[in-house]
Amino acid sequence: MTAVTFPPGKQSYIALGLEGSANKLGIGLIRHTASETTVLSNLRHTFVSPPGMGFLPKDTAAHHRAHFVALARAALAAAGVLPEQVDCVCFTQGPGMGAPLSAIAIAARTLSILWDRPLVGVNHCVGHIEMGRQITGAGNHVVLYVSGGNSQVIAYAERRYRIFGETLDIAVGNCLDRFARTLAISNDPAPGYNIEQLAKQGSKLLDLPYAVKGMDCSFSGILATADALAAQMKAPGPNAEFTPADLCFTLQETVFAMLVEITERAMAHVGSGQVLIVGGVGSNERLQDMMGEMARERGGSVYATDERFCIDNGIMIAHAGLLAYETGFRTPLEESQCTQRFRTDEVYVKWRD
């Protein structure tokens, strides 16, 4: 990482990070010194929809607006930081859901103007990667980024996070979330987490499509087939010879095997035995186990974090934003609009060698 240069009389920088690209409102504060990175606070409030339903953009944005002020005050209090001590306001500029992103962008602009502090727009995916690197100490590893909205295999080269492979349709997290709706599984604390717990009770591996195309994956056909099996299970008449737990087990085993395959192919390409898993789905223990088994066979290992840093959070935005801020990056107010399509490889990673 590029060495941080502080102006005379200053020994640290503090950033406020605002995340709200989906149903998690996250606010965190982080401090960088010349030698240390300290998480000062990392609070989150989740919009939970009823079982069998997803979260609509307008309802999610309303949730973020309703809880922002209280959560921001609580984050500042937990960190023991006053607004005048904050050096920059970092916010998720994309990718994500349009309405929630806009709600957070408006909040970030408001604080920037009220506190007279510069804005730093952050790519959500890069935020996940940089926080994963910070927490695990991972170096130049292949990155598997898996969440509700994104599924990518990434490697760093020449100041960019290069995408080697990705989903061709829906993200793996979205696939799991939508199947949770099919089974009317609770969304509290998260549909993917509840599928993971139910899958531990399953034992029968059913036939699902396996859709790996080179370095890319496709999940929509798998979801359609799983939905059809669920409908067969629920149909009146003789009971199906499988359970909801078997369906969850099968879905996880299939989609995770696909992700392990394309990750291994990227590792072979770049000559690395190490994998860093980031994103909300990255906290799934079964995915970590499968990836770990593959990496050990290659003489390598897997780096992953728990739900505090895998699931969307404000501290990852604060950290990635502060890294950019320290290299001189700022987001002018007139360029602070958010975008649902903000590619990981669009970001110039000036803070890495």
Automatic annotation (TrEMBL):
InterPro entries for this protein: ATPase_NBD, Gcp-like_dom, KAE1/TsaD, Kae1_archaea_euk, Peptidase_M22_CS
Pfam hit, one: TsaD
Cofactor section: a divalent metal cation
Domain Gcp-like stretches: 45-318
GO biological process, one term: positive regulation of transcription by RNA polymerase II
UniProt cofactor note: Binds 1 divalent metal cation per subunit.
Gene Ontology CC, one term: chromatin
Subcellular location: Cytoplasm; Nucleus
Top EC class of this enzyme: transferase
Alphabetical UniProt keywords: Acyltransferase, Cytoplasm, Metal-binding, Nucleus, Transferase, tRNA processing
Single GO term (MF): nucleotidase activity
Coiled coil: none
Reactions mediated catalytically: L-threonylcarbamoyladenylate + adenosine(37) in tRNA = N(6)-L-threonylcarbamoyladenosine(37) in tRNA + AMP + H(+)
Binding-site positions, substrate: Y145, V146, S147, G148, G149, D177, G192, E196, N284
EC number: 2.3.1.234
Major site of localization recorded for this protein: cytoplasm
Membrane spanning stretches: none
Signal sequence region: none
Binding site for a divalent metal cation: H124, H128, Y145, D312
CDD domains: ASKHA_NBD_OSGEP_like_euk (cd24132)
Origin: domain of life: Eukaryota
Family statement drawn from the similarity comment of this UniProt entry: Belongs to the KAE1 / TsaD family.
NCBIfam families: arch_KAE1, gcp_kae1
Name of the protein described by the UniProt record: N(6)-L-threonylcarbamoyladenine synthase
Organism taxonomic ancestry: Eukaryota, Fungi, Dikarya, Ascomycota, Pezizomycotina
